[in-house]
What does this fold into?
Amino acid sequence: MDYKVRNILIVEDEESIADVVRAYLEKEGYNTFVAYNGSKAIDIFNQQEIDFIILDLMLPDLSGEEVCKKIRIKSQVPILMLTAKAQESDRIYGLDIGADDYITKPFSPKELVARVRAILRRTDTEGVKANILDFSNGDLTIDLNKMEVKKQGKIVSLTAKEYKLLSLLIQNIGRIFSREELVVKVLGYDYEGYDRTIDTHVKNIRQKIEDGNNKYIATVYGIGYKFQED
It folds into this structure.
């Protein structure tokens, strides 16, 4: 079996912390790149094949949140946020805009490496899932390669945004997405419209894929939506 060395981008403005993280990761066999500010991080990401990002939130130019948003426009690369922010709301916001996990400063380098391994294992497993997903004995199928959805064997006509929303929910069964998170992931972080636009997309999707016997998209009142197999 071929073993691919993973490229990890460390985005941290404190050189001493970056050096420690880099040393621990390279000891584990990872290849590392280091950026001391957000702009350099974006440059490296655009120029290199990056498999994982460790991202400090407090950077001297672009904030870690802004870097995360820019990367999420074009990639679902795993992101582990480093934060000194103690407020739960700050950490939840980081997860909502696309981070896979976070670790608070000060942290154990060994724990950080363990988190990296765990996230990579999870994303690797997700990556080898079947590309054709089937629900309720063929009532609903989605072909991720063809970007094709079928209801009882017939192709469902979805807009690009509706497909993007449905495929996001369907690949994360049971996970609750807030409206704000869906706006960022489906409409883009720079979308300035009303977040209830997501409700309209969900309503349209439901009309196309659900019936009296099968209800797939559940409303989690006060939060958002999740996909469930009836």
